[in-house]
Amino acid sequence: MESNGWLVVFLVFLILLSGFFSAAETALMSLNKIKIKQLVEDGVKGAKEIQEITDNPSETLSTILVCNNIVNILASSVSTVIFINLLDRFGTAVATSVSTLVLTIVILIFGEITPKTIAVIKAEKLAFALYKPLKLVLVLLKPIVFIFSKISKFIMLILGIKEQGLHTNITEEELKSIVSFSQEEGVLEVEDKKLIYNVFEFGDLKVKDVMIPRVDMITLSKNSTYDEIVSVFKTERFSRVPVYKDNIDNIIGVINIKDLFFIDKEDDFVIDKYIRDVHSTHEYKKIRDLFNEMKKKRNHMAIVRDEYGGTIGLVTIEDLIEEIVGDIEDEYDEVVDKEIQVVNEKEYLIVGTLKIDTLNDMLGINIESEFETIGGYIIEKIGRLPQNGEIVEVDNVKFKIENIGKNRIKGLRVYFDNDV
């Protein structure tokens, strides 16, 4: 019976070891890698060692797996001996069966479920508490793990299975899920979430998705007089306007309103002196690439051309930035306090940037479009920028254009009957 006492102590030690390896595995694999990197940069003691361990997950997991198996096999053997000594009168088969049942339950509770659950909750604390003994184990068992790893790789090679590293690159969808969860938990505001989502979409959009179409471009002829140019700037309130020679397909540059301030004698005005070079691009270029080009060349406007060199639209640096931060309102834009304003049960005032999904949900309609906003949908539907007061009908719903600004639909009136 005295020998059984030592065996029980040894068995408890083995179960604790099993829990140690299970907790270490879960804690290290659950760590916030960005947080650890920051701790390393801050010079926190032990952070560098933890980073080294987690940077080689294959070796770490293999070592923990070997150790856990050795510990559990030893625990099974010791448990069997203990129960045979205790239940020898019932026979070896009964004692072995009872040992297997009891040890399985104990290992599951104290060697797997409990330590792993704690490790998930306290991953960082446990990692700093356990990394020293684990690092020692990694060094001691490195030769054995190396041999096992080579055998495993050889078997995989025979089976034609390519080794995939345990390092996985986080996907865009996973990042979006993190952002969405952070917003739900109150870490991020709704506007922060929208901003981050817009950054993701920014990389996918092409110039054709954001450009101002040819039919809606405001341009100046090279033959325009000073008064005509000033009149256009006063009416449209743009800071830059493209200049063409002969026809709009031959855009030769852009004129900046600031340059007009330095003219002393209007009678001597010659437009050629004030035409600046304009950047050209094509409709299928990623707006991310165009943004970098325009930023590098310090251009605020780009003319979009087709394969034959004809003008099909233009895009400004503000248009590109607005794809991330949303509409940038200046002192000339009308301020709209609410996205949807109820006039009566059959009439609503909405902003052009209102999401189609939001409009569908709030008004109980079903508009489907590749565009996200109602303004973009209306332009897609009629193939051009509508005029103020123009009426567009979609699925028994009528939209009256109330406000056009900066070549975008700013405000609309929605009707649910035929009285417009």
Automatic annotation (TrEMBL):
<feature type="domain" description="CNNM transmembrane">
    <location>
        <begin position="1"/>
        <end position="192"/>
    </location>
</feature>
<dbReference type="InterPro" id="IPR044751">
    <property type="entry name" value="Ion_transp-like_CBS"/>
</dbReference>
<feature type="transmembrane region" description="Helical">
    <location>
        <begin position="70"/>
        <end position="87"/>
    </location>
</feature>
<dbReference type="InterPro" id="IPR005170">
    <property type="entry name" value="Transptr-assoc_dom"/>
</dbReference>
<protein>
    <submittedName>
        <fullName>HlyC/CorC family transporter</fullName>
    </submittedName>
</protein>
<dbReference type="Pfam" id="PF01595">
    <property type="entry name" value="CNNM"/>
</dbReference>
<dbReference type="GO" id="GO:0005886">
    <property type="term" value="C:plasma membrane"/>
</dbReference>
<dbReference type="GO" id="GO:0050660">
    <property type="term" value="F:flavin adenine dinucleotide binding"/>
</dbReference>
<keyword id="KW-0472">Membrane</keyword>
<dbReference type="InterPro" id="IPR036318">
    <property type="entry name" value="FAD-bd_PCMH-like_sf"/>
</dbReference>
<feature type="domain" description="CBS">
    <location>
        <begin position="274"/>
        <end position="331"/>
    </location>
</feature>
<feature type="transmembrane region" description="Helical">
    <location>
        <begin position="136"/>
        <end position="161"/>
    </location>
</feature>
<dbReference type="InterPro" id="IPR002550">
    <property type="entry name" value="CNNM"/>
</dbReference>
<dbReference type="InterPro" id="IPR046342">
    <property type="entry name" value="CBS_dom_sf"/>
</dbReference>
<dbReference type="Pfam" id="PF00571">
    <property type="entry name" value="CBS"/>
</dbReference>
<dbReference type="InterPro" id="IPR000644">
    <property type="entry name" value="CBS_dom"/>
</dbReference>
<keyword id="KW-0812">Transmembrane</keyword>
<feature type="domain" description="CBS">
    <location>
        <begin position="211"/>
        <end position="273"/>
    </location>
</feature>
<dbReference type="InterPro" id="IPR016169">
    <property type="entry name" value="FAD-bd_PCMH_sub2"/>
</dbReference>
<feature type="transmembrane region" description="Helical">
    <location>
        <begin position="93"/>
        <end position="115"/>
    </location>
</feature>
<keyword id="KW-0677">Repeat</keyword>
<dbReference type="Pfam" id="PF03471">
    <property type="entry name" value="CorC_HlyC"/>
</dbReference>
<feature type="transmembrane region" description="Helical">
    <location>
        <begin position="6"/>
        <end position="28"/>
    </location>
</feature>
<keyword id="KW-1133">Transmembrane helix</keyword>
<comment type="similarity">
    <text>Belongs to the UPF0053 family.</text>
</comment>
<keyword id="KW-0129">CBS domain</keyword>
